Amino acid sequence: MAIELNAKKFRSQIKSCNNALRTVLETVFAQKKPADRTLSGFFRENRQLGSRDRQFISESVYALLRHWGVLRRFLPEERRAELESGVIRIGRVELEALLFAALYLDGSNLPAADAIAKELNIPWPKPKLDSPSPFLGKADALAAIFGVDVQFCDRDLLPNWVFDLLPADFPLERFLTDLLRRPPMWLRIQTPDLDRLSTELQACGSELRKVENIPNALGVVQPKVNLFTLESFRRGEFEVQDLASQCIGLVAAPKPGERWLDACAGAGGKTLELAELMKRSGTVVACDVRSYKLDDLRVRARRAGFPNIVTREWDGKPFKGKQAGLYDGVLVDSPCSCSGVWRRNPDGRWMLAPKDIFEMATLQQKILEAALSAVRPGGVLIYATCSLFPQENGEVVKNFLSNHAEFQLEKFAHPLTGKICDGTLQIYSFDGDCDSMFVARMRRSAEESNEAV
Q1: Which residue among 19, 169, 246, 436 has its CA within the 20 to 30 Å range from the CA of 1?
Q2: What is the CATH number of domain 2-157?
Q3: Structure confidence at residue 222 as a pLDDT band (50, 70, 90)
Q4: Is 204 in the active site?
Q5: Catalytic option among 336, 338, 386, 421
Q6: CATH 3.40.50.150 fits 250-452, yes or no
């Protein structure tokens, strides 16, 4: 009887998962909306789903999106084009076969993959040993079982146009390998009692990782509990912030008592970091053209008791009056393609188009031009993106510097290695098991007159 009940429970989970998959595929391909927001909305509308149901659905959705570049090739070309245009007319059996393939390739929930295979009468694939890699061996085995005449390669994990826009020396093989792995959770510690916090996290069954050069960064490997329910989180003793993101604040290196501006603050992860690095003295003004984005920052700052954070809406225009030339440092964490977080948000690979890159570069240039007016003579301007593409990174900085001789790149130490950088840094996912991010540090000449500001 227990086996029958478990089977019924699993069938109910699969039904809910199918509904979530259809919803996510439609919003990603038709509406270009992020999968994480779609899933959050799906769970709000289906509150009857328990925590295990939500976890299974989330893992399944992301496994399918993570391997979509391979899975899409199992579909007939016409069906694939229809689906990727947002017309979701895929049948239950076909969708569950794709889900089985996703879970098999991902390896995260093989018992569920096995249960689906038995229901659909799919023989368990034995990876082909003559394939170039274990992953491709599994993909080739699936192709043989599904009767698809396809030869896979690692490049199937990304749209073809991406490769033409990557740097000539891009470490493609290492990056593609990382795209198959789940991203870790990184914490930034906001309490001096790191040992006590580590003990609390370990007591919850979490395996922790430390970073030699960044003592306040703590990696949590497959947390067993929801960290946001811990008392230490409610006391503001840590924030979830990716390791590469933490490096941006360390490159900015604000000093206690200074006045900084976070021009594109959003939810304020880097605002909080700047305020903490300043030992909670001085002032960090966080602004954004989307004022509602700052609501979350206000909650986070209040929870951790930050006294030196001010929020303000920005119209995206150059700073004038008292705000002009006021700040010791300005951080422009610019909107971008988000290609550096494709490991974390795999749906982003399929929502982006080449024209988006060039449109983003134009916007980034405009934001930098507006933000520079806030930097005082002798002050620092930090430009950052979570992009892999030179068009959004080095080329934006090069164009900016060619138009503004009063700014020069300034050397800084790589936060992860200590190696001296020439003023720009591209962090890749495999540098620290993190997101990929770009940062440039520019210093404004101290000899300018106030009129020049």
Answers
A1: 19
A2: 1.10.940
A3: confident
A4: no
A5: 386
A6: yes
